[in-house]
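I hope you will forgive my troubling you with a question about protein structure. I am sending you one protein, given as its amino acid sequence and as whole-number tokens for its backbone shapes. Thank you for your consideration; the sequence and its tokens are set out here:
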Amino acid sequence: MECRAGCAACCIVISISSPLPGLPHGKPAGMPCPHLTAERRCSLFGQPERPAVCGELPASLDMCGTTDQHAFAYLEELERLTTPNTPSP
């Protein structure tokens, strides 16, 4: 499965704990990655500076669903479940 053009849920919703260009301490959850283009594509795609976690999170029907809203909701729940001390809604 390929990423849905313009979705970028994984580039916005999830936290990234490893350093990336411009964010030496990583990216907090909910913050759009500064490397998203106006078309919501990754400008680091295929570059050595791209964090490994980004390449290790492949698109899947379970995660992406058929809508951007599904992808955002799925990843928000995943982030909540994997982040210590995150309160339940």
About this structure: The CA atoms of residues 70 and 79 lie 14 Å apart. The chain has a mean pLDDT of 91.
